[in-house]
# Entry
Amino acid sequence: MKSGKAGEGGGTIRNLRIARAGKKVTPKRSKANPLRSGLRIERVPDPNVVVLFGATGDLAHRKVVPALYHLWAGDLLPEKFALVCFGRRDATDATMRTDLRASLEKHARVKPIDEARWSECAARISYVKGAFDDPESYAALSRHLDAIDASVGTGGNRLFYLATPASSFPEIIRGLGAAGLDHETGEGGWRRVVIEKPFGRDLDSAVKLNREVGKVFRESQVYRIDHYLGKETVRNILIFRFGNLIFEPIWHRRYIDHIQITVAESIGVEGRGAFYEETGALRDILQNHLLQLLTLVAMEPPATLDAEALRDEKVKVLRAVRLLSTDTVDEHVVRGQYGPGWIGATEVAGYRSEPEVDAASETETFVAARFEIDDWRWAGVPFYLRAGKRLPKRATEIAIQFKDVPQRLFSPTGDTPEPNMLVIRIQPDEGILMRFAAKVPGLGTDVRPVNMDFAYGSAFSVESPDAYETLILDALLGDASLFTRADEVEAAWRIVDPIMESWLAGAEPALPNYAAGTWGPDAADALLTREGRRWRRL
Amino acid sequence: MNLSAAELSTLRWKSTAHSVAEADALLARLWSSTESRQQISANTSPDDNGATPLAVRTGVMNLVVVAPGEERAVGAASSLTSLPRNPSRTLFIVPRDPEGPPTFQARLEIFCAVTPRGDGTSACTELLWIDASGEAGRHLSSMVPQLSLHDLPTLLWWDHTVDPTSRDLKELLRGVDRILINGADQQGVGVEVVRDLITLSNASGTAISDFSLIRQARWRDAVASAFDEPEVAPYLHAITKIRATYSAGSSITAPANVVKPTYHLAWLASRLNARVTAPLENHAGTWSGAIDEEGRRIALTLEPVLDAGRSGTTLALHITAERRGGVLELSVRADGASTHVRASINGTPVHERTLRAKRATDAELLSQALELGEVDPLSPSILRTFAQLVG
# Structure
């Protein structure tokens, strides 16, 4: 086989070595700034403009702008940065800044607001009035962005953040595409789009949305944000699993009996009745947050931590989840809706009495489901997922219940020790708890479970950033690891679709079926008790 | 558990001891017996079931503070109270009267706070105030290991001038995970003391944290941020001169402690992966040396400037780089509230930025030092280069 360059005497290793002997080899240098290595901030984004659609809306004021302010105040944004707010309302740069400053007072994570830092940040904010369906608005936006590139030096790098109702996504995406705002420039200017959940209402709509987005942006330009993935403890699941040797060997059907994942909220719909009527717990929590947590717990170790490798493994898990048929949904899924009750010594109304809620609503405020993952690691291990509103307390956790020891060695006449349990607490009181058996001091051999408890608050004094800060910074840095890929979204809907179809086709449910302030309907308990298990007391 | 200043205010137990063994035994007995643990919890009301809530000792670390006098020890304790989390056990050791008879006296205190968990559990931290006189004060290595909690990392805060020739310090370093010093407080020009301590700590495998180095984080952020800029970045590997000016106080020729400005040079050299070719030499207060980055010589200078500020404090950092006919001049300055970066190419300004970064307080520095735990991504390479620069 002849393959070497002319003059190098052929491509054998020997010839190449001889040809290169004596030549000075300059090692390739990384483009990363070595002075950043080991510093508090190891990377900062390129100069850029964030274009915020829905800038006058709740999400922008509550989450996105406070996150950008905190990033700016923490010197995590480049000096050459601008925020362009795009909205339908009449506003000016000045009024927009005033409105955002007022919102910051309510929603900033760190108070008081640093006025000097806010002033710097505010000076970079401008407003463009436009309609999402008006091509001229996008042309005006494009001219405005070009002017910022020229005056600020943002290099054509643009992040389009869609903090709008999901129904507006397709027309904004189309508008951006028609104006050529999706085109990445040859000089290195990048274009990215951030889309907020929900990513569709079912599989069909998710596929359609992905198709619409895909007509304009390449998948590598799309950042679908599920803020749960930006939470410190959720990110720690990967470190816990793959940064420690001792857990992975027992992370297996041979040792694990079952896994429970809970997202419990004590609040009701909090004035978002109309939104919740169209969503429900299944779409709002299970389809995204709960299934995301499931993928992180169940995934195989990725080859690298890059976005594609990580998301490939998550998709594999979702594809391995055994799909329910409409016939088996009732056996594996329980829905509930809260009636009136008491929480924290306060009487609260039932869901059907909430503002903007139909008095005969069939929307579920609670869902519990049993899933199985058909792969070699998890075959036969049930995953119990539950989420609900107006439960007795706010708690999100993953509980891994290990199997019993194989022999009753210590108490031949009594109980076996309780099996081990590992609990990853996501909120509140973030931490990890390991439950194991210990001997009760004394002459006998009584065994009792004890806890080994790690709490984030006691181990680290560093304050965690808000999930939005983490995710927006990642999007600006071009790291998509914590964002959901199109096939991931569709795989999750494929799991949820049969449940929705079964409910639509079934008889009218007997709702409400649990009182506010309780742990959901009795049927949710039965989901486990019939298999000799029970939900963990939280 | 987090015990902040306000929460630390509850003294739950105190005692005295006249020997290391007695202090050790008193504390061990306290935590091993249910009765005495209840004594610590006694200030807490029983819960609804009538059970007295538990008191537990935090599992963070041992901190050993060696201070030259009572006043410094109290100052250190004051810094501790404002930390977001506290060591499990802190030994405040004040060696006294080195020529007197050997004595040991300790005041033992346990402070607790009810945790935010809601089950009434108290998290406690122990303070041991130790006066050691005569030979006892010169043999700290004989008492620290015995009074340290097993299996927790031990941080030695040497709030004192360092004598790297001390046999006791050498022994002490063998039993601690990290020593915390302030290089800027060392005698003379300071750099030789720090260099010798680096050698000593390398032998014992003990990490060094220096307040002077930690304090410079805002300078490093500022310099690094300048080289993030597209116009400035290409000059990073074309540096020809690094010059730090420092306060000489009221006399240029009087010896000033130059640990701080030397750290700037060591940081840059270590990040550029440069080799020290000429260690720093002092000529009437101006120190000169050189490093080599891939065959390119970089001249280093520490230059004294008459200034009312504390002698040895860095006043400015100047970096010159030359590339394809362009000459970059970068300067960084800091004041109490911020750092200022200015860069120009061939005299034309290309970058100017003020980064808001307050000068860290002692408590903040201590907190950062404690938080470094066993992993410090920066210090080892800087200290290695520092030692080479000092020669």
About this structure: Residues 8 and 18 of chain A are 8 Å apart (CA to CA). Chain A touches chain B at residues 26, 29, 33-41, 44, 47, 73, 75, 78-79, 114, 116-117, 155, 429, 455, 457-458, 460-462 (CB under 8 Å).
